[in-house]
Structure formats: C-alpha cells, structure tokens
Design goal:
Helix content: under 10%
Distance between the termini: 51 Å
Oligomer: single chain
Number of strands: 10
Order of helices and strands: EEEEEEEEEE
Shape: rod-shaped
C-alpha cells in the first residue's frame, strides 16, 4: 500500500495466476484494530483485465490497517490474498491538554514558570515537540 494522505491509502495487487474464468471484480477487505471489517469492490473493465489498484478513502489518521484482496468471476468469489499491514500517514496532532501552572519563581530580574500539560488525546503521529507561547502578561498581573 502507498500513502495518499493521512486518511487514504492506494492498494496495488497482482492478478491471480489461475483465474478459472474472467475476473469481473475484486473485493478489497480492510479493518483497523478496533473496528469491524469493511470492504469495497472494483469492477474490471472487459477491455483491460489488468486493473489491480484501488484507493481506500475515509480512513482513520495514523492507524494500522489489515488489508486483503479477493477476485471474483461469474462463478463466485475466490480465496483471499495474504494479509498486508499498512498504517495511514501522520497528520497534525489534536490539541494538548490545558496547561496548568505548577510553580513560579523569580530572581535576578527573571521569572521562571513551571507549566505542565498532557499529550494530545489524538496525536496522529509522533510528537516531536511543543510550542509554548506566553501572552497577555504584565507586571502586577497575578494570572
């Protein structure tokens, strides 16, 4: 599978060696660890029996998926392929928890603040850093 975005994958597969007839469509099965199995079909053009690619859209961000493919003829569905495991791409994280002031101190003309927050509930990837902004603070303001 190839990344298209944080919520979509492009899946490619090989046609079966023994088709036992003309393939009329492929079924792509997929599921994430917490959800039900889902599927979609891709019809085969009678003039081009080599269509072996499908985009899977509306997936969860930064989530592992198990994916299988099967081919069908007019006689029915064949066996499923071996499974592949693919993760959707990273995306911007959700918001971190609200910061809380743990402590403050000052000395030599400087003030230090100790602030704590929790990681985002939905990081959608690997958090590599946080940006902290301090605004609206003036001397004598105890907030």
């Amino acid at each position: 599978g190839n990344f298209l975005s944080s919520q979509s994958l492009q899946i490619n597969w090989d046609s079966p060696r023994d088709t036992n007839g003309l393939i009329s469509f492929y079924t792509i099965y997929y599921r994430d660890p917490t959800g039900p199995e889902q599927s979609l079909t891709t019809k085969v053009d009678k003039n081009n029996n080599n269509v072996t690619m499908q985009d899977i859209l509306s997936l969860k961000k930064w989530t592992w998926y198990r994916i299988w493919v099967s081919a069908s003829t007019s006689a029915g569905e064949g066996p499923r392929s071996d499974v592949i495991n693919v993760r959707t791409d990273e995306d911007k994280p959700g918001p971190p928890g609200t910061p809380t002031l743990v402590g403050a101190s000052s000395g030599q003309g400087q003030t230090w603040l100790n602030v704590r927050w929790t990681h985002p509930v939905n990081p959608y990837g690997i958090i590599v850093g946080y940006q902290i902004r301090l605004t609206g603070v003036s001397r004598g303001n105890n907030q």
